[in-house]
Amino acid sequence: MTDMQSLLLAFCLIVGLKLGLADISGNGTERPYPTYCTTFEEKPGKCIHYKKCPYIAEVITRLKAKKQLSERDHEIMANSLCSANNQKVVCCEEFNNDAGWELLKAYDPICGEFGDSKVTGGREIKMGSRPWMALLKYNITDVSQRTSFLCGGTLITSRYVLTAAHCIRPNLLSVRLGEHRISTEQDCDTYGSIETCLPPYQDVPVEKFIVHEGFHAFTLFYDIALLRLDRSVTITSFVKPICLPIYEEVKRSIWGNKNQHQKVTGWGITDNSLPSDVPKEADVIRKSLSECAPGRTLMDNQLCVSAFVQDSCQGDSGGPLLYSYLYQGQQRFVQTGIVSKGPKNCGTGSTAIYSDVTRFVPWITQNIEI
């Protein structure tokens, strides 16, 4: 047997030339959805059958044709297995949809601009300072207007809002943007001796929602969804998109800094166990997955975030975890996470779970359009 034939045989034995779903749990339990992984080049990937991964399938084709392999080809072969217990699937890089990526990039000049950097964790933020914040309104009878807003979200383009998949319900009606104090029709505040008022909020019906195909309601894996609005919102100083980590240097900065101080914003339940009338913001710390409480099973597309004293709470679901970054030469906020689940009694646990937006950028680009 030649060296090339030995190499091909070894790789075939590793990945298994068989069709079917991958056992990616490592315990014999098949999952009906792919898991996220990190490629040998430190890029977000999915565990899928190698035949569905074009560039790995090309390596196999070159091997079968007895063609010369590049150094990168050898690295791919040596580092693509998702699990030692699974010989069927490989970690395949997820690629952006060019049209979707360009749509997000078009908002670079205005995304993530904030009005006040001197907010204090757990307290009301300056009016209009988080112009990407969205409230999701549901058709709930016999309740006040305040309690019909059950989740949050973020504007990412003039037509799309990013939120948590578990916030998607049949009675979801509309999205409100440009809001501050829910109980008042017009939001005004006095700074010094000058009264400033926000323009009227925008209520926009939801045209459709797109839930991640891997979402699991019990585990909250893949807890991410997109809302397509039935019209484009009017972009103003107080209604504009958040920046997403669409650039590699932004992702590397987020991944490379351990114990990052980040912010979570929302109208959720506060210290008096009532939902807040105004958006509040808490300072939290992003931790490694291994630091989460024992007994939790987490995936690479989830984040472990501190939840002691300062924490998100019920009603904050779908809202953003924010990272301050020098984006396109200006200090901006970039969304790194989506509020998913936390301690039963908010602020009393050690950690909470968020969906990792950096892992879902390809999925987002594949599901948005003009």
Provide an overview of this structure.
The chain is α+β, with helices and mostly antiparallel strands. Helices cover 16% and strands 32% of the residues. It has 6 helices and 19 strands. The strands form 4 sheets. The chain has a 6-stranded antiparallel β-barrel. It has a 6-stranded antiparallel barrel with strand order 6-7-8-13-12-9. Helix 4 crosses helix 6. The protein is elongated, with a radius of gyration of 22 Å. The termini are far apart.
Main features:
alpha+beta; elongated; 32% strand; 6 helices; 6-stranded antiparallel β-barrel; single chain; 6-stranded antiparallel barrel; disordered N terminus; 370 residues
Please specify the SSE layout and strand pairing:
Layout: H1 3-15, E1 36-38, E2 44-49, H2 54-64, H3 71-79, E3 81-83, E4 86-93, H4 98-105, E5 123-124, E6 133-138, E7 149-155, E8 160-163, E9 172-177, E10 188-191, E11 194-197, E12 202-211, E13 225-229, H5 248-256, E14 261-266, E15 280-287, E16 302-308, E17 320-327, E18 330-341, E19 348-356, H6 357-367
Antiparallel strand pairs: 1-2, 2-4, 3-4, 5-15, 6-7, 6-9, 7-8, 8-13, 9-12, 10-11, 12-13, 14-15, 14-17, 15-16, 16-19, 17-18, 18-19
Helix pairs in contact: 4-6
